[in-house]
Task: inverse folding
């Protein structure tokens, strides 16, 4: 009874903390500009299904894709067992579903164990890739102490949680032989290998180990769920809405600014006479996160810092400061800073300047390699263009040679300094 | 060369099949003007009724938009749209992937909706229809050619196969670079980089890309974009390989193979 009470309190406590974080993140994303979703809803759902659920784009790199798939499948399927954990925890039952599922239960348990072992091994491989093989994209400039610790923490915690499941099942199987209170599960393939370690222990010790592993696993999962909201690991949830809101236009398209269209039309004498007063244009482009679209901010929370974008970026590959992954990480960091501080957006800081420099955005070739590379359809280029718009239109702070290019287009209708009347000379040469 | 302008044709009461959008590089860049002429020769040889805008053409605004100057982009876009709509233009062919992308994807919401075709697709269609036939014995038969994907054709607009099919018509030995199609490496000129120096770094992007092209052992690097052409040619020069390796646009390859 006391165990049930403690469990209920723990469950409520974590639910409260997680709900608070979810509200805060929602508030963060809602700092952004609301932009309409254009295009076909069916295509959006198709993207969620194929790219988020089906992980289609992950498979461009086969080794991490397979390992990641084990962890992903493990996460989805093993978490079904969490439902049983919660029912057992609240009702004081043991293996609640076993009598209901009969013969199916041991099969399911074996599947869970297989996945637990697959997850465990995949996490070990991933730790080796990161820390011993030192895959370059995990060690580039923006992968400072926290992002590296974050990644290693997640992998380590997953290994410990999986070990807890296997320990619990092994101890449980030994107990099944001694006490009829323990529902018979039949032999579980993987954890039965651990049984010899427990066979010589006293029943009291075994009960303690089994309970401890149970508690460790469920509290671990609840703690992990809370941790995830602070971590890059949030992609496990945000990847889904992100693939839904990701834009559907060809990648070469850059979004239009209707405010500018209005002004240009009136300058050219093309504007329809408007009866409503002109709307406040706000800022041109983006200086801070509230100037970006909600889709861009959501993307920042969906980024798991895998660095596939940066490893394909021509600017980054040739030693320039730009890293598309850093653009996403900076955006999220700035949103987190704004939602956590009292001053909010008025803290005297901004995304452009305090996080992202002009040197970075000026290095982009808009080649879309980063957009193509992202497994969850994040678009760093959208953010780069918005920042450039702010620099060009609000600050007139573009590089000098771009300002000359602008001037050439304005006066010569070509980006180079040639007389417009010479445009057709090629035909005579 | 007799190049009809849309103004001339309209005055005569005629309508061309296509408008050939020449672009700024096609009009002003000394090297790239040869591509413009090669394409025109193909059009003439096939008796395709086309016109150009001549002095009425002006920058699409692509580099302005990508450098962040939305005002300038829209000024350019709207005045171009006024001209194009004024003539009732329906179908546009261009050799520049940047012009192609801008007119095709970005002009519609500003009031300019046309059928826009990149010359790689246009040439591919002509080849498939049997209108471009190449005889044996031209200079590129069996030669090693590698194709450099333009970002604004490839990733930006999913055009990967048309340029390759054009090259296959040459019956050449088409070799791919390690990074090609969706993972093709940019030449370094997109996003208005063409009009400024690169930011500080360890290497120029065009050199990185050129090294990859040279590693294939190809004697011709085929391109389908004026900016890529400049960048790869500069790369080849910096490697002092211009005697052995030539950089050519698809239209030039076809025109040369046809002896035009």
Result:
């Amino acid at each position: 009874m006391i165990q049930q009470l403690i469990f209920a309190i723990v469950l409520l406590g974590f639910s409260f903390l997680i709900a608070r974080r979810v509200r805060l993140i929602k508030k963060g994303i809602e700092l952004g500009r609301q932009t309409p979703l254009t295009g076909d809803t069916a295509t959006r759902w198709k993207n969620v299904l194929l790219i988020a659920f089906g992980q289609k784009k992950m498979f461009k790199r086969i080794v991490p894709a397979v390992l990641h798939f084990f962890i992903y499948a493990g996460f989805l399927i093993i978490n079904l067992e969490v439902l049983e954990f919660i029912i057992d925890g609240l009702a004081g039952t043991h293996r609640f579903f076993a009598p209901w599922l009969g013969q199916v239960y041991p099969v399911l348990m074996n599947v869970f164990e297989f996945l637990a072992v697959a997850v465990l091994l995949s996490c070990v491989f991933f730790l080796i890739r990161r820390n011993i093989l030192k895959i370059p994209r995990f060690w580039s400039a923006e992968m400072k102490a926290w992002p590296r610790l974050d990644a290693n923490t997640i992998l380590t915690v997953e290994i410990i949680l999986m070990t807890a499941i296997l320990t619990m099942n092994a101890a449980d199987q030994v107990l099944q032989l001694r006490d009829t209170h323990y529902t018979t599960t039949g032999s579980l393939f993987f954890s039965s290998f651990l049984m010899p370690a427990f066979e010589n222990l006293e029943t009291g010790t075994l009960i303690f180990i089994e309970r401890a592993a149970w508690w460790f696993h469920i509290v671990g999962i609840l703690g992990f769920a809370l941790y995830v909201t602070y971590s890059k690991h949030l992609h496990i949830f945000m990847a889904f809405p992100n693939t839904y809101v990701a834009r559907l236009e060809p990648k070469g398209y850059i979004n239009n600014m209707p405010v500018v269209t209005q002004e240009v039309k009136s300058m050219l004498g093309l504007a329809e006479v408007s009866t409503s007063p002109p709307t406040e244009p706000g800022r041109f482009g983006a200086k801070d996160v509230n100037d970006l679209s909600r889709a861009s901010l959501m993307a920042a929370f969906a980024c798991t810092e895998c660095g596939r974008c940066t490893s394909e970026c021509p600017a980054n590959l040739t030693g320039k400061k730009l890293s598309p992954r850093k653009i996403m990480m900076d955006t999220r960091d700035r949103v987190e800073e704004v939602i956590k501080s009292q001053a909010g957006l008025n803290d005297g800081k901004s995304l452009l300047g305090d996080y992202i420099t002009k040197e970075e955005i000026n290095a982009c070739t808009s080649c879309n390699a980063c957009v193509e590379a992202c497994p969850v359809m994040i678009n760093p280029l959208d953010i780069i263009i918005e920042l450039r718009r702010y620099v060009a239109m609000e600050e007139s702070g573009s590089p000098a040679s771009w300002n000359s290019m602008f001037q050439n287009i304005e006066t010569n209708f070509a980006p180079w300094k040639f007389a417009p009347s010479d445009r057709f000379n090629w035909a005579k040469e | 060369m007799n190049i009809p302008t849309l103004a001339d044709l309209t005055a005569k009461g005629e309508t061309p099949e296509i408008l050939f959008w020449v672009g700024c590089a096609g009009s002003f860049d000394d090297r790239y003007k040869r591509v413009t002429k090669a394409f025109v020769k193909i059009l003439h040889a096939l008796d395709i009724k086309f016109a150009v805008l001549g002095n009425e053409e002006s920058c699409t605004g692509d580099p302005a938009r990508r450098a962040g100057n939305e005002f300038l982009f829209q000024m350019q876009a709207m005045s171009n749209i006024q001209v194009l709509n004024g003539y009732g233009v329906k179908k546009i062919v261009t050799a520049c992937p940047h012009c192609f992308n801008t007119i095709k994807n970005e002009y519609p919401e500003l009031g300019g909706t046309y059928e826009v075709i990149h010359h790689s697709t246009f040439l591919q269609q002509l080849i498939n229809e049997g209108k471009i036939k190449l005889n044996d014995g031209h200079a590129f038969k069996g030669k090693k050619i590698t194709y450099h994907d333009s970002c604004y054709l490839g990733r930006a607009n999913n055009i990967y196969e048309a340029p390759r099919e054009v090259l296959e018509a040459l019956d050449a030995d088409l070799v791919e670079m390690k990074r090609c199609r969706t993972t093709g490496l940019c030449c370094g000129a997109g996003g208005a980089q063409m009009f400024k120096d690169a930011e500080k770094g360890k290497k120029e992007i065009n050199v990185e890309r050129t090294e990859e092209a040279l590693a294939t052992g190809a004697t011709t690097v085929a391109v389908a974009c004026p900016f890529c052409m400049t960048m790869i040619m500069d790369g080849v020069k910096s490697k002092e390989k211009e005697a052995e390796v030539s950089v050519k646009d698809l239209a030039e390859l076809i025109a040369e193979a046809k002896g035009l």
Summary: The mean pLDDT of chain B is 97. Chain B has two domains: 6-123, 134-257. Chain B touches chain A through 69 residues (CB under 8 Å).
